[in-house]
């Protein structure tokens, strides 16, 4: 499938496509150490969509960038854990081999395509760059392939638009360009970091539809990073809920909406405005997310949690397995589930 | 784009008249007795005085004099200096050497500023970054009236590495030392702007994208960051070039280079009104043209800017 010629890394085709295991990332700044990711774990199979859900600053983007290996270091340092791609630990690879994985096997798209694309180069240049630098294609071949890509993401008049600059596209079209660029080298994993947050609702639906379609065609693993529970419900197979740099609940999408097993997930669901609750006070999560430089002891959610008791203030809850693919980090799962 | 250029050219005409008017008025106001200044210590007969007054329209009011002057200027006649040389000839002699000097200076300054600025921008807080900051601050703090004679003394006379002065037909080698002195005037700001611009662009989202595309660090910086970072630097270099052409008064004097600054200095000292106004008029035009070119270049470098 991939045209990568020189991968010196042994890959095990039977191992999970992507497995992030106990990942730790910290930011060392003058004001102290911020623990952005504190043992995040998840896995992904081909053709599957995993949504990583959480508030701003919960570490979901940092996790994605650590998987890609594009964190700015300093200040960011990956201090522990493994990122296994088909069994090979990417964190142990030298930068040169690591680079081979980027875009070739794991690609990423970003929230704001206007700032994520280079303003001073044409879209054609930025697309063709992928083929020229990774595949050694000629200028003409790279251009032809770039036009094909823009056609695939359904940008009208691709032949002409290839010479346009990013600012000459609309928001939705720009995100399509980002997607085309990420898919240029047929990656096996696509990480989409809030791909629709900057877009209008109607355009959001189009982009999510396009992503889902391309994913089906290519049997690609998709990690969808979002804070929007509405986006998640339609497209995700599984959901990992992240809080203060940790996955606090993981479950198939249906289960999580029907029976949330973590107080945080439950609170998130209750804070969605619903038409059938019109006129009633909206349940919001009280308090603020904890400061990453000063995480509370025990369960990081306890200061905002209605179920919290003494044990929550001292003991960090382990990952309780509650069903085949369900995990929750809460001392009081039974109460939360209401069983 | 075309309409923009036309509009700018019209603006330039206005600016040109405004600037020459002000300079002319200042020289007019500062004039004490130009005829005495012309003849120096020698006595002058009333008939000679009348003839000269007639010739230079000295009895007419200020506006009439300005009118005569501009009429000459627009027909290509810069008039004669009080030393009786044609100012057009003096300009033709002075400009080539000043142009060479300032271009050489800007090349030196830009090369150092961009190379060191990019490295400092990438390695903020490193020894290299702090060292360049310290050195540029020292150079920046030293006035040119100190720096120029000092450089001449140390590198020209004591060490003998460079020629001490440069004449009319000075080659690159003779101009190297004065050009370096001149470059020190602008290198610090250019370096700091490059550094800040690179540092800012390194944090930009599109750099993250470029990394995610699996590009090498050399390509991320050399292609993606550099082009964006140079936009403000190029603008600054253009403005500096204009400033250097007019700002070489001290340097040209110290190194005895008969350029624009050298002539201006002499004109101001001898109250040679026509000479000063003539040279300044050309300087104004050069400055305006350089600025127009810089603004057009800006649109070439940054496709988001469209003039209409």
From TrEMBL, chain A:
Q: Where found?
A: Cell membrane
What are the alphabetically sorted keywords of the record? ATP-binding, Cell membrane, Membrane, Nucleotide-binding, Transport
Pfam families xrefs: ABC_tran, oligo_HPY
Keyword Transmembrane listed: no
- Keyword field contains Ligase: no
> What is the residue range of the signal peptide feature?
none
Please give the SUPFAM superfamilies that the UniProt record associates with this protein.
P-loop containing nucleoside triphosphate hydrolases
The protein's superkingdom reads Bacteria
Example of a GO MF term: ATP hydrolysis activity
Q: Where is the ABC transporter domain?
A: 18-269
Would you tell me the Gene Ontology cellular component terms?
Answer: plasma membrane
InterPro entries, per database record: AAA+_ATPase, ABC_Ni/Peptide_Import, ABC_transporter-like_ATP-bd, ABC_transporter-like_CS, Oligopep_ABC_C, P-loop_NTPase
Kindly give the membrane topology term recorded for this protein. Peripheral membrane protein
According to its UniProt record, which protein family does this protein belong to? Belongs to the ABC transporter superfamily.
What protein name applies here?
Answer: ABC transporter ATP-binding protein
UniProtKB/TrEMBL annotation, chain B:
Query: Where does this chain mainly localize?
Result: membrane
Q: Name one GO cellular component term.
A: plasma membrane
- Keywords tagged on the record: Cell membrane, Membrane, Transmembrane, Transmembrane helix, Transport
What is its membrane topology? Multi-pass membrane protein
Instruction: Report the subcellular localization.
Output: Cell membrane
Which superkingdom heads the taxonomic lineage of this protein's source? Answer: Bacteria
Ranges of residues in domain ABC transmembrane type-1: 95-298
Q: Name one Pfam family in it.
A: BPD_transp_1
List, in alphabetical order, the GO biological process terms annotated in this UniProt record.
Answer: transmembrane transport
Q: Locate the transmembrane regions by residue number.
A: 12-30, 99-119, 131-155, 175-193, 229-250, 275-301
What InterPro entries does the annotation carry?
BPD_transp_1_N, MetI-like, MetI-like_sf
Looking at the keywords, is ATP-binding present? Answer: no
Q: Which family does it belong to?
A: Belongs to the binding-protein-dependent transport system permease family.
User: What is the protein named?
Assistant: Dipeptide-transport integral membrane protein ABC transporter DppB
What species is given as this protein's source?
Paractinoplanes ferrugineus
């Amino acid at each position: 499938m991939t045209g990568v010629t020189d991968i010196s890394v042994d890959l095990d085709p039977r191992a999970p496509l992507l497995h992030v295991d106990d990942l730790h990332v910290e930011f060392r700044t003058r004001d102290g150490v911020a623990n952005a990711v504190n043992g995040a774990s998840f896995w992904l199979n081909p053709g599957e969509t995993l949504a990583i859900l959480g508030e701003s600053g919960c570490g979901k983007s940092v996790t994605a960038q650590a998987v890609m290996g594009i964190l700015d270091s300093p200040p960011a340092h990956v201090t522990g854990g493994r990122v296994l791609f088909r069994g090979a630990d990417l964190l142990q690879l030298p930068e040169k081999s690591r680079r081979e994985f980027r875009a070739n096997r794991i690609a990423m798209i970003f929230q704001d395509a206007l700032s994520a694309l280079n303003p001073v180069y044409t879209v054609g240049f930025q697309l063709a760059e992928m083929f020229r630098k990774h595949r050694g294609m000629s200028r003409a071949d790279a251009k032809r392939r770039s036009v094909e890509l823009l056609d695939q993401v359904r940008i009208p008049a691709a032949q002409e638009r290839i010479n346009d600059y990013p600012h000459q596209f609309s928001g939705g079209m720009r995100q399509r360009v980002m997607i085309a660029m990420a898919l240029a080298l047929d990656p096996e994993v696509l990480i989409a970091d809030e791909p629709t947050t900057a877009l209008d609702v109607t355009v959001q639906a189009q982009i999510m539809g396009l992503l889902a379609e391309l994913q089906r065609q290519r049997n690609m693993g998709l990690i969808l990073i979002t804070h929007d529970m509405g986006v998640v419900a339609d497209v995700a197979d599984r959901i990992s809920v992240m809080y203060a740099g940790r996955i606090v609940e993981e479950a198939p999408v249906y289960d999580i909406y029907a029976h949330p097993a973590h107080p945080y997930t439950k609170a998130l669901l209750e804070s969605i405005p619903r038409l059938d609750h019109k006129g009633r006070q909206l349940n919001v999560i009280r308090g603020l997310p904890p400061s990453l430089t000063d995480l509370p002891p025990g369960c990081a959610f306890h200061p905002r949690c209605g179920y919290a008791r003494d044990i929550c203030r001292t003991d960090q809850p382990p990952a309780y397995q509650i069903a085949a693919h369900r995990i929750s980090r809460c001392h009081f799962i039974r109460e939360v589930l209401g069983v | 784009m075309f309409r923009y250029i036309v509009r700018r050219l019209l603006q330039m005409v206005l600016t040109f008249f405004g600037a020459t008017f002000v300079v002319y008025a200042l020289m007019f106001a500062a004039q004490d007795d130009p005829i005495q200044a012309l003849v120096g210590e020698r006595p002058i007969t009333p008939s000679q005085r009348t003839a000269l007054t007639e010739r230079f329209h000295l009895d007419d009011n200020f506006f009439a004099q300005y009118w005569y002057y501009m009429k000459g200027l627009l027909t290509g006649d810069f008039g004669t200096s009080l030393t009786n040389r044609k100012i057009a000839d003096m300009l033709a002699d002075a400009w080539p050497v000043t142009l060479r000097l300032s271009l050489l200076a800007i090349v030196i300054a830009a090369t150092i500023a961009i190379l060191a600025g990019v490295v400092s921008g990438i390695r903020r807080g490193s020894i290299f970054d702090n060292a360049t900051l310290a050195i540029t601050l020292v150079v920046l703090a030293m006035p040119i009236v100190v720096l120029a004679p000092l450089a001449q003394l140390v590198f020209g006379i004591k060490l003998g590495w460079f020629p001490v002065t440069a004449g009319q037909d000075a080659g690159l080698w003779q101009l190297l030392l004065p050009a370096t002195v001149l470059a020190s005037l602008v290198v610090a700001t250019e370096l700091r702007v490059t550094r800040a611009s690179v540092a800012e662009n390194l944090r930009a989202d599109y750099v993250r994208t470029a990394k995610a595309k699996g590009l090498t660090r050399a390509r991320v910086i050399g292609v993606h960051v550099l082009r964006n970072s140079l936009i403000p630097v190029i603008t600054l270099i253009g403005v500096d070039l204009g400033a250097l052409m007019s700002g070489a008064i001290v340097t040209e004097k110290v190194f005895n280079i008969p350029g624009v600054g050298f002539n201006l200095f002499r004109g101001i000292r001898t109250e040679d009104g026509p000479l000063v106004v003539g040279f300044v008029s050309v300087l104004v035009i050069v400055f305006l043209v350089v600025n127009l070119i810089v603004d057009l270049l800006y649109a070439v470098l940054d496709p988001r800017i469209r003039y209409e």
